[in-house]
Amino acid sequence: MDIAFRNSGCIDLHIHSTASDGSFSPLEIIEAARKIGLRAVAITDHDTVDGSAEALSLPRSHSIEILSGIEISADFPSGTMHILGYLIRVDDSALRRTLKTVQDARAKRNLKIVGKLQDLGVDIRYNEVIEVSGGGQVGRPHIAQVLVHKGVVQSVDEAFKKLLRRGGAAYVSRYRLLPAEAIQMILKAGGVPVLAHPFTLNAKNETELESILVDLKQAGLKGVEVYNSDHTLEHKNRYERLALRHGLLLTGGTDFHGTAKPGVQLGIGKGNLRIPYRLVEELKKSIVKV
Ligand code: AMP
Ligand code: FE
Ligand code: FE
Ligand code: ZN
Asked: Which helix (H) or strand (E) holds 225?
């Protein structure tokens, strides 16, 4: 059985392009998605709608539906909180303004990280990072790739573990939107805010996660990413249970980054993700109700 057949009619609502830290352009992603038979996709780049807007500007094809998308990093000191936004108006002026502030903070932080690496004796220049990024939003994964090319570390993962992770020797924090600000920004741009890969919050147990979800729902959260390449069966079951209990939508995607995240394939993740199209129908219905 070929991949195209296995994917037919499924969706992938978590994809990174060269507009952030993915290795394929929006065009390459949409072509690949069509080829494997995906019915709907969303490009969800970190803190930018550029990749999503580019995908939406491609000539329309009836075989695949493209939803607008973004993934916002929110301030959450005890873990990593990413809020996905779907069906946003990508040209919303307030959204663009806020993203510009976040992007400027990101750029300053990247320079500081490179400075810290230089202080640690690593021979690295910011231009090398820009080159690797391909002109989109620069992030730590690009810095990690330069470190791998230079043989400072063996892998991107090692670069994060040794230097770039929060608390690592070359880590620099940056301005992030508060969770409620990220959620409100998405809502005001006409979109649906969804908590991405909840396990990265590092909640101690299900009760703690549930209380975070309740707070986020209070702030306007509408859904939870239940299906993701990095979710175990236990994660999936837990998030499904919590989402249903709190009247939140279920969404899913692979978090595909191309060659920047080896082992995760478009549409199927680590091999066994099959995310049904009806989740897109629910997403769309939730907007009509507002
Ligand atoms: P930044 O957006 O610059 O804060 O970098 C965070 C991004 O780096 C995440 O969204 C992931 O895509 C990526 N990332 C985080 N940890 C790792 C890791 N251990 N290996 C590869 N990529 C990672
Ligand atoms: Fe990423
Ligand atoms: Fe994420
Ligand atoms: Zn992501």
From this structure: strand 223-228
CATH code for the domain of 21: 3.20.20.140
**259-268, pLDDT tens digit by residue?**
988 899 999 9
212 in Cβ contact with 272 (< 8 Å): no
Find the CATH number of the domain harbouring 155. Answer: 1.10.150.650
Centre of ligand 1 to C-alpha 151, Å, is 19
What residue spans of the chain are helical by DSSP H? 3-7, 26-35, 50-56, 93-119, 126-133, 140-149, 156-159, 179-188, 206-218, 233-245, 278-289
Residue pLDDT, tens place only, 48-60 = 999 999 999 999 8
Do both 90 and 182 map to the same domain?
yes
Joined together, the tokens standing for residue 187 give 């809502």
pTM: 0.95
* Residue 91 vs residues 30, 172, 245: alpha-carbon distances, Å: 20, 30, 34
- Minimum mean pLDDT among 37-41, 135-139, 190-194, 283-287: which range? 135-139
Tell me how many domains the chain contains: 2
Domain match, 202 and 281 both: yes
For residue 160, give the ligand 1 atom closest to its CA: 19
Ligand 4 centre from 223 Cα, in Å? 16
The whole domain housing 187 covers: 10-97+176-287
* Pocket of ligand 1, beta carbon within 6 A: 21, 46, 139-141, 156-157, 160
Nearest to 51 by CA among 34, 68, 64: 68
Query: Does residue 94 carry a pLDDT above 90?
Result: yes
* Same domain as 125, residue 15: no
